[in-house]
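Team,

Forwarding the record for the chain on the shared tracking sheet. I've put the sequence and predicted structure together so nobody has to dig through attachments.
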Amino acid sequence: MKIFTNRSIFLLFPLFFIGLTSCKKHDPDVVVNGEAKVKMINATQTEADQDVYVDGGKRSVTALAFAQTTDYLKVASGSRSIRFIGSANLPTESAINFTPSLTYSTFLVSDRNGARQIVSYEDNLSNTESGKAKIKLINLTPYFTTGINVSVQAGTQFVNALLFKEASSYFSVDADLNLRYNVVGSGSIKTIDNANFVAGKIYTIWFSGTTAANLEAHIITDN
């Protein structure tokens, strides 16, 4: 068995340190990048079909009609140029920042004056509770200053006055219950049938419409 004296260790340590630092050089120009996953949705009801571009490269297979969505697309993380291009208007472009390994839903929307913009929301694809579906709700109609309420069929309200471009937290709901929604202050109550939900699935539900009567819920299955 070899025995090192204190003097031996003292002499060997500088050599080890020199060897280590000579092998591991710091390069300040190296940037570690990852990937995020993003699905793109056309939420502009009066617009022409939209092609989607990321950093100048076309990513949509076919142009997206209103309420259509792409599959999740892999994109480099960091600030990315997202562009929607249709035939009716000039392209809409925004720089959106994506975090590595996260997933997002990114929408083309317009305000009451028709001004278009791109908004993005992080998706949470972690496991759901047993026997339940997990949902997130987003109001993408600018026409209701009072917002939108959402409740389960028994009448328990869990989203109150969701305003334009606001997203709720995630909720776990029994997959066999209907959801009801309406414009705050309106007696026109709509129903999302429980046939749209499967236990273990995760959903993004976003709203469009110009009046309480034509308020509509759009359901995207995220997993």
